Automatic annotation (TrEMBL):
<dbReference type="InterPro" id="IPR011055">
    <property type="entry name" value="Dup_hybrid_motif"/>
</dbReference>
<dbReference type="InterPro" id="IPR016047">
    <property type="entry name" value="M23ase_b-sheet_dom"/>
</dbReference>
<keyword id="KW-0175">Coiled coil</keyword>
<feature type="coiled-coil region">
    <location>
        <begin position="37"/>
        <end position="71"/>
    </location>
</feature>
<protein>
    <recommendedName>
        <fullName>M23ase beta-sheet core domain-containing protein</fullName>
    </recommendedName>
</protein>
<feature type="coiled-coil region">
    <location>
        <begin position="181"/>
        <end position="250"/>
    </location>
</feature>
<feature type="domain" description="M23ase beta-sheet core">
    <location>
        <begin position="298"/>
        <end position="388"/>
    </location>
</feature>
<dbReference type="GO" id="GO:0004222">
    <property type="term" value="F:metalloendopeptidase activity"/>
</dbReference>
<keyword id="KW-0732">Signal</keyword>
<dbReference type="Pfam" id="PF01551">
    <property type="entry name" value="Peptidase_M23"/>
</dbReference>
<feature type="signal peptide">
    <location>
        <begin position="1"/>
        <end position="26"/>
    </location>
</feature>
<dbReference type="InterPro" id="IPR050570">
    <property type="entry name" value="Cell_wall_metabolism_enzyme"/>
</dbReference>
Amino acid sequence: MKFLRKFAILGLLVIGCTGMQQPVLAAQTPEELRQAIDARAKELEAISAQIQETNDNLSKLQGQGRTLTQEVKKFDYLINQANLGIKSSEVSVQKLGLELDSLNYKLVDANQSIESKKEAIVETLRILLKRDREGILHMLLKNASLVEGVFDIQAVKDLQDVLSANVSDLKKMQETLTETISKTSDKRVAIETENRNLKNKKLILDDQKQDKNDVLKQVKNRESLYQKQLTELESQQESVSKDIAEIERELRAKFDASILPLKRPGVFHWPVTLRSSGGIGVITQHAGGVSRLYNGRPHNGLDIGIPIGTPIMSAEDGIVTAVDNNGKRLQYGRYVLIKHGNNMTTLYAHLSRQIVQVGQSVKRGETIGYSGNTGYSTGPHLHFGVYWSPSVIMKSIYPATGLVPIGVIIDPEDYL
């Protein structure tokens, strides 16, 4: 029977394409793993709420003026927030590890189910091949009556249907196995990523402690010295901002806005997920907005308030063109500049750490650094800027250190 031989070949092919090393199972049972995962998830929710509380306290502090006492409070909140970020990463690593163990159980179950199904298929094939050698005429003649012979033939047909169903089930089982293997691989990558976040968050905590000590050492715990430094800082920042605004004005005068890409959402990936989309970011200043900090000049980017140490993602595929630092308390602080293939360049400023290098290719959604409070900033946030690439220049502007990126400003929200 050609029909039977086709199934025999198909069954043997399906049987032969499985086989993988069995994962090492955790000491916990699947139910214990589920309970442990749920417990970690609740712990992460509690930590997230604490981080949000510190962020709210920082926001309230920003509206109360600038004194040495409040500066110390700000550092204390940031240090607490950094500690909570470390704890969040530690628990996330634990949760991901438990989820990986749970997937390993599913892999074992899938392999065992596949082995059982293979055995059933092999047994069915063995019977069918034996009947196939007998032939239909032999089955009709060997029985005492024609009815019994027909029943015998029907039994073969039923076996063929069983074989067909088993082969179909096996294929579905293998698809499930492949999907589980993929999830397992993704989970391992997630663990590696979170461990990297944990390492960087510990470094960010050390930086915050050092920054607090540096400020207290400089002002010798005296309000008068702090206010004197603050006045000097504001004067220096005003000089830097004025120079940048003048260059931007000259660049805009030569710019033809018609050559920009069509405005539409999704051109850029959000560098950090907003609270309205299930994340933790909150827009605190839109591009073009005016506040006391800018002395009446329009804001040249989008500010997103986020806890210190939050991973910042590249908005699109591109090449890193600058990784620099304008100083702890001036302009953009630590920043990353990325040029994209759509003739737009994105800026990620006030970072606590950068983890990319100049010339490096980055992918859309790839982590490039962590949010911070460096540069001229009153609280932890991301300054996200977008420039028309051909207009971008890198300028040394005293007393800011390093190079300051300047160019024709594009509203980020037109492309997010």
